[in-house]
Amino acid sequence: MGAGAEAPEAEAVSSRRGSTVPGGDAAVPGTGPALAVLMGLSLSHLLNDLVQSLLPAIYPLLKQSFHLDFGQIGLLTLAFQATASLLQPLVGLYTDRHPLPFSLAGGMVLSLFGLALLAAAPTYGALLAAAALVGLGSAIFHPEASRVARLASGGRYGLAQSVFQVGGNAGTALGPLLAAFVVVPHGQGSVAWFGLAALVGLAVLGLVGRWYAGRLAAAPRAARPRSGAAAGGLGRARVVATIAILLALIFSKFFYTASFSSYYTFYLIHRFGVPVAQSQLYLFVFLGSVAAGTLLGGPIGDRFGRKLVIWGSILGVLPFTLALPHADLFWTVALSVPIGLILASAMPAILVYAQDLLPGRVGLVGGLFFGFAFGMGGLGAALLGELADRVGIEQVYAICAYLPFIGLLAVFLPRLR
What we know:
The protein is mainly α. About 75% of the residues lie in helices and about 0% in strands. It is globular. The model is unreliable at about 1-25 and about 25-30 (pLDDT under 50).
């Protein structure tokens, strides 16, 4: 493999020591995290996901303007998630062999085009095309950005993934808030103003790409590590089974999260009669707790182990999800905080666990898991939208409350070195 791969012996050492190959996916030993690069990645992730989060944030506005039903709302999310999901593993697989430092900025350009089309879309078909373009930008951005985060980690892989991912969570949380104060009062066309965020993201990613290109140039191609066997000497069948378990946990997490990101505002409006702008603020509370959970999950996994975080985050949320459908408005908002916090702590731990399981496949792992996560979010949005049309939005949350039971599968995850 190319610069994106790392030797299996590099994974056998402590995560705090990193790789001995400067062109690999791991950090150079004896160095700390490249904080400026990690912060640049986090900021660009914030701006990228801020642009992407505008789509679900303005669903109530689009539903009214284009006379959409819940099924059509779900298809909008599916159009975004399908391109983001299906292409990410392919992008990751390619960049494992052929790293593309400036593809990060290219992904932001596609998101910018999608945003411009979203602002001016005259028909439902144009909305679907805009959503697909934004998803394509996401598919290009995430796998390579995840690799750069690992390269800049200084061996603290969980911390690096948390810093990187929390930017995306913060952008996702800010989208509904800005939509409430900008788009809802001024209409669909005001979405175009968020193109400024994409332009700032382009500038930041240009600098990150230059740093990444310099790291690649510092290691001769022949010296770059190649992919090796799975960590801990696990057989192929055990590796495949472990990946399947991790993907099942991702399914549980993101299928449930889709009920919030796409339909929480409708749930609050329908059940408690809150205004649209106020429902966006309550969605911001949930998404802010998701950002906090993401930031905590990686460092806790670095210190106490990924499996412990995965086990606690997926199954530990169950009491709160079971209580939420029976709560009043105050407790609904209050319960959304631990739900977001606990659920979100899983993603950095799952991603680093999978990277440790498959050394030298960082791009593929990032593309597969981010892509599957987006795909489950899109599929969840589409299916839950149809379910809401048939049985009502309140019943959706009563059914989804049981999804965290899938977290019991974490008991079958092997302990990695």
